Amino acid sequence: MKVFIAAVLFVATLNVASASTGCKRSIRSCNVTDLATGLRSIVDYEGCTSMCCGSAIYERDIYTSCCGDEDTGLPYNPKTQHCCSWPFGKEYEVHDKTNNTAEFCCGITLFNNSASSQSCCNGYYNRPEVFNHMTEMCCDGNRQFAGDTAYTECCGDTSFDRRFSSCPCHDGSIAVGIPKQNAGCCYSSDGRSKGGYNTATQMCCNGQGFNKTGQFCCGGAVGNSATQMCCGDTITDVAVDQQGLSLACCVMADSTTEAYDSNTQICCGGAIHNRGSNVNDDLICCDGTVFNKSLGDACCNGEPYLSQDSACCENTVLPGDSCCGGIGFFAGSQTCCNGEISGNGLTWPACCTNQTFDAYTQTCCGGVLHNNPINPSALAEEDPVSHTTRCCGNFANDVSLLPYDYMSSMCCNGNIADLGGLSWATSTCCGNDVIDKGIYLCCDAVALEKDFGAESACCNGIVINGTSTLCCNGLPQPKPSANAQCCGGAAMDPSLEICCNDTPRTLNNVDPDKAICCGDGCIDGALYWCCDGKQYQKGALSGVDVSGLTCNDLFSG
Question: CA of 357: how far to CAs of 345, 349, 351, in Å?
Fold first, then answer.
């Protein structure tokens, strides 16, 4: 009878608990460990009033959560206790809360961060540990001394000072001696290998860097400029007695390459031949055969010929210096127009589409012939017709193109403007007109006098002294310092101010290299985060390793 009453009371208790918590009754199982024997057994329990944590069953009216899991864990009350854990090592520890809001968990240990200089170095495999984010770095769970973390970054599990080193290929390999600002990653042609190099002093060669001076890249390999040279894609050794000579490459009969002195030797037919000691004994190579250069200085169909008064036209030597349709002609007195030789008796024979003309008296503009203009500055005894012409107009519209004398006129915006006695060497276009650039400035196509001489500059249609004044958003602003910069419509001294949303803000003694804008002011980026216009002290976020993170990383859902 007593057992029945107890059972009734137990059911009644469960019903009351279920009703008060809104929990639907459910029978669950827990693999419970007997502390006396160490043996484990499956025990059923009511999930609304109890919980399974660390191989034991606890009442929920005392402990509301499990710090860990059903096999390994400890019960705790989140209202009065902290659950500190390292899930990878299945380690859990419960600590009572204090009134100190700066305490945080790092692994299974509770720390006090009143100094706001500590963070937790969390690694998946490594046991979490506290580190000083002002002097230390946490890289992939490894705590390391860094000195000044304002200049330090992570490369894999190792930290480096970006002023002197870098992580160019982002593969965990640090390039010591290569600053981050000069670092580059050099990939091989097949993408299988890579390495860092200094872009200021080196270049990339198939996965490895080489020095711009003293080395070269040849066929994907690095050579030594002092003792080697590149022949095709093959690095070829240079003999000691050849160093410093004008060397060239010769592909030998056995397909190897050798260096030779191009001043005293010639490569022909897969062999190196010595030139003669005087000009009459010099050599020429025609289709793999060596000839004495007295027979000719050029080759035509495998034979030497003298190019001074002959041309090789379709493998035949003919009189002339040029070819037209397989016929030789002299370009100085004739021209080749539409495959035919013409222009006999012309001073400067030329071709305008299919017409032969004398460029001495005419100009071809857009396929149309025009008589050359009269030079207004020609002296009485001189030929008034210009012989120094170019075309001016809208080159998208051939009809608008006309010739002009470029010694007495200029082409300004497609319009011919007379120099009016000005020297073309000191003249320039301003809109459609010509101005003397030693006297005038061209400001928005308007000529204005240089009131301040060589220091004159344009600012929204007026002339300012460019040495003492800046033009900021079209407004003249006095320079507060020699290195002043514009910030919106104002001038500022970058050593004393920072530009935030087009408004100068005082640095407040913050190092300019570390200063960042935040809201309406300036903060030290080495000590604070700026997130949505508000500053957060680095390390003040409980249990968060802030090194290398952005605001989005910290505060995104």
Answer: 11, 6, 6
CB 250 within 8 A of CB 257: yes
Q: Are strands 515-518 and 503-506 parallel, antiparallel or unpaired?
A: unpaired
Q: Of 40, 46, 43, 70, whose CA–CA distance to 60 is shortest?
A: 46
Tally of CB atoms within 10 A around 80:
9
Alpha helices in 231-362 (DSSP H): none
Q: Contact 174/137 with Cβ under 8 angstroms?
A: no
- Residue (of 120, 142, 125) closest to 545 by Cα position: 120
Per-residue tokens: 402 = 């006309």
48-59 burial code (b ≥16 CB/10 A, e <16): bbbbbbbbbbbe
Q: How confident is the model at residue 413 (pLDDT cuts 50, 70, 90)?
A: very high
Q: Which two tokens mark 228?
A: 């080697």
pTM: 0.47
**CB burial of residue 351 (10 Å; 0-12, 13-18, 19+):** middle
Q: What is the pLDDT of residue 84?
A: 92
Q: pLDDT tens digit string along 39-52? A: 999 999 998 889 99
Predicted confidence at residue 241, as pLDDT, reads: 85
Task: Give the separation between CA 482 and CA 467, rounded to whole angstroms.
Answer: 8
Are the CB atoms for 505 and 520 separated by under 8 Å? yes
Exposure string for 10-32, b = 16+ CB within 10 A, e = fewer: eeeeeeebbeeeeeeeeeeebeb
Averaged pLDDT, 403-426: 92
Query: What is the average pLDDT score of the chain?
Result: 87
Residues near 470 by Cβ (< 8 Å), separated by ≥ 6? 476, 477, 478, 479, 484, 485, 486, 491
Contacts of residue 191, defined as CB under 8 A and 6 or more positions apart, other chains included, come to: none
